[in-house]
Amino acid sequence: MTDKSPVLLSAYVVLLIAVIYAPVMLIPLFSLNDAIYVTLPLMGLTFEWYQQLAGNQKMLEALSNSLGLAVASSVVSTALATLTALGLRQQPFRGQYGLVGIIVLPLVIPPVVLGVALIGILRNYFHLPASLTSIAIGHILLCLPFAFLTVATRLQAIDKNFEEASRDLGEGALATFLRVTLPLALPAIISSLLLCFTISFDEFVLAFFLGGNEPTLPVFIFSQLRFPNRLPSVLALGTCILTVSFLMLLTSAWASRSSYPTTSRGPDDQLSQL
Predict the structure, then answer these.
(1) Which of 162, 169, 185, 242 could serve as a FRET partner for 112 with CA atoms 20 to 30 Å apart?
(2) Residue 1 pLDDT > 90, yes or no?
(3) CB neighbours of 187 closer than 8 A, spacing ≥ 6?
(4) Angle at 259 between CA 256 and CA 265, to 5 degrees
(5) What is the rounded distance in angstroms from the CA atom of residue 65 to the CA atom of residue 52?
(6) Least confident of 9-18, 121-130, 161-170, 265-274
(7) What is the structure's pLDDT at 106?
(8) Does pTM surpass 0.85?
(9) Does residue 219 surpass a pLDDT of 80?
C-alpha cells in the first residue's frame, strides 16, 4: 500500500489539474477556429481574430487603462508593504498581530462586498466619482495583502547579523538598508511587483463597481460577450492575456524561490558575505 501511495497521489494531482485547467486550455484552441461559434470539430485554422485585435481602438484603450492601473497598483502596494514589513521587523510592538490582521483582511472579504463598501466610502465621504482613480484605490487595497505577505516572509528570513555587522562597520540606518537589506529582499520585492501586477490586470469585480466611462480590459471583455460575432476576438485576446499572466506568475515564483542567506550560516560565513 505504501508503494502505491506516490502513484495514486500523482494520478490525483494530474486529474485535479486537468479538471481545473482543461476548460482554460480550450480558449487558445477555439481562438484559432475559422468560425464565430465555439464548436467542435473546428471549421479550420486561422489567425484572423488576432489580426483584428490590432485594429480595435476601444480594446487598445481598455488595455492601456489596465496596464496603467496594474503598474500603479503594483508599485504603490509593494512600496507600502515593504515599509510596513520593515517597520514591524525593526520595531515590534504590542498589537502588531492585530495590524497584520487588518492588512490581510481583504483576502477574506468577498470582492463584491469590498466593491460596494468602497463605492459608499469614496463617493459619500471623499466625493470621488467612478473613475480610474477609484479603481486604483480598490486595486491597491486588494493587492496590499499579497505584497505584504510576500515581502514580510522574505524579511523575516534574513539574518539580522548582516545589518548589525554593517552598523558595526560604521554604516548608518539608510546605508544599511540600501546596501544590505534591500539587495537581500530584492527577489521578494520583484516577486511582489509581478504578482500585484497580474492581480490588478486581471481583476474584474472592483473595476466593474468602481469604474466609470473608462473601462479596464476585463470589463471591456465582459461587455463584448453580448455580441456573438465578437466572441472569436475575445478568445484571441484571452489567449494573449493567459500567456502573459502565466509568464509573469512563473517569473514571480522563480524570483521568490531564489536563494538568500539565512540564520543557518555561522558568524564567520555571514561576515565574509558583506
Answers:
(1) 242
(2) no
(3) 154, 255, 256, 258, 260
(4) 135
(5) 20
(6) 265-274
(7) 84
(8) no
(9) yes
In the chain, the amino acid numbered 215 is: P
Radius of gyration of the chain (CA): 23
Are 194 and 255 contacting, i.e. CB atoms less than 8 angstroms apart? yes
Q: Which residue has the cell 489596465?
A: 66
Cell digits of residue 24: 482554460
Under DSSP, the state recorded for 257 is T
Contact between 199 and 142 under an 8 Å Cβ cutoff? The reply is: yes
Residue pair 161/58 in contact by the 8 Å Cβ criterion:
no
Q: Roughly how many angstroms between the first and final C-alpha of the chain, as a whole number?
A: 51
Query: If we measure between CA atoms, which residue out of 161, 157, 156, 194 comes closest to residue 180?
Result: 161
Whole-Å CA distances, 139 to 134, 200, 209: 9, 6, 12
Q: Per the structure block, which three cell numbers stand in for 98?
A: 492585530
Residue 73: pLDDT band (50, 70, 90) is: very high
